[in-house]
Amino acid sequence: MPLQDHIPRIDDRRYDDIVAELRTRIARYTPEWQPVWTDVNDSDPGITLVQLFAWLSEMLIYRLGKVPQLNYIKFLELLGVELEPARPALVEITFPVRDSHTESHVTIPARTQLAAEAVGSSVVFETERPLIALAARLDAIQAYDGYAYRDMSQENALATEGFEPFGPLATPDSALLLGFNYPDNSMPQAPLDITFWVQEESGGVSAYDCATAETAHQAPATIVWEYWAGTEWQSMNLLQDETRAFTRSGLVQLKTPTEGAMVPENIGKLADDTPRYWVRARVVKSAFELSPQLLAVRTNTVCAIQAETIKGEVLGGSNGRPNQSFQLDGAPVLADSLQLEVDEGDGYQRWQQVGDFYGSTADQPHFLLNRTTGEVRFGDGSHGRIPVANPANPAANVIAREYRVGGGKLGNVAAGKVSAMLSSISGVDANGVSNLKAAHSGRDEETLEEAKLRAPQSLKNKDRAVTAEDFEALARQAGNVRRAKALPLHHPDFPDVQVPGVITVIVVPDSEQPNPLPSEGTLRTVCAYLNERRLLTTELYVIRPHYRHVTVRAEILALATADVAEVKDNIQSALTEYFHPLKGGEDGQGWPFGGDIYFSLVYRRILEISGVQRIQTLEMTLDGEPVPECTDVSLAVDTLLYSTDHEILVM
Questions:
Q1: pTM of the model
Q2: CA angle 365, 367, 368 (to 5 degrees)
Q3: Number of domains the chain is built from
Q4: Which backbone phi and psi does 385 adopt, to 5 degrees?
Q5: What residue numbers bound the domain in which 57 lies?
């Protein structure tokens, strides 16, 4: 986004401020007039001159203030530093099929729109790809540990506690069985999309391995997919597996066999004896360090993005002049979504979006797009072609055939909030549409101050991640990430050993929670962003911070004139903010990663509160364990502090 819209103000004095200041200086700077200049009201001629010069001064302040600011802004633009536009949130949506639907499946088109209630407004999401939602319901989950079956259907439905799909040991021949209820019908031959969510509290996604297809480690187990054919298990065609043997959340896509090949059966140990169609994931080879733990398994689930598609918007007509600009109605615009067409007399033709006109020739149909404001700009005839005026269509020969708008932190809605379909699809149970997990990765437009801080680092790294500072700066640009800390030679599985070629990045999202934790989706987003910019030989991990909860217990003696309740509230607020991971620390930029706790600084923080006379006693606890009095505390390098409440007694 152009930076002119965010020019800072050096001197914000206005006309009234200048007049008031001059009136206070009359007695000091014109002592010779004091015997006669006693009237400083608007009717006095001298005050009229004061008002005139105040008006002239306001104009000079405004114009002169623009000069250094504009120079700075233009310098950033010459360096190619512009404000990053807002980023859209992502979320997984489940579309259940009605029990009364008579067909074997329902097709959910791409760009199906849903709405979520956010703070003060609604947010629109669109599905990213088409989905074939099968009518067969996944209503039975069993875990087979090689010896016995365990019914996990209730745990899967609640999606709160999690369960072990292969039992506590995950030995070879253990299996996860998925039972599909489809009465009076045969399972059709169709793609079967199954989405798995790993239980985050199990530690499975606290550290995310950013391996690409070229650098991916071997999965910790070999798993084969099979279906029950009536007398035996038969192999199933696996199209895609993003889970790496259920160690990370993702999609598994299978191809069901020909219609009639799957036979309903009552298998295992269930509360009812309903015959079901069964699909299982069986462990062939196991090298799990810990048995995987799943939060939930869902079918008919697809990724949606915080966006709204706008089609057929007329921008206006070309007049044949250089450097023409047109305005889209919607903004911010999603990257690579605008399809712009111009009718120069031979029908509408597609024009190409470019980042700048430096490489464009006079006859190339190129245009620029300001994604934040929605401004479309054409070339000057030397760098970039000028759209020819069309007498047959003078007011509407420039049209935005399609584009998508959306983005912002507002899209990071909670679980279960994306539930309102904006258009009806026959066969879909609209009351059951929902998102099991919260949306993630939505980020507001970058501020000018953030751009000024990013500019020096952008000149150093040139959008490449090599040094620790590069990884930190780029991680903050990846999504809704407020803070990042890169740890060279640090491997999450071997924290006490320096491992060459490894770098671990800790990310903290921009959140209102006292201990902001990135979702697995945020970890994946940062991984994908850094993977495009890191060296191929770098082994990269993105992890959550490790939090420790700190509580202060103190007895405070207040001044006799102080409000005891107000002093207590101020101390509570000051300590909570001091230990905050985003606003705490001595500099107010967040508690430093691995930053030691100094008792003397905690004392000073309390003594600075107005109304405090002295501290009688002060104790601290970390995660409920008492800290020795007047003893500083050292923290691990990946650790941050947070607090929720303190026990303060003011006397």
A1: 0.78
A2: 160
A3: 5
A4: -75, 150
A5: 3-78
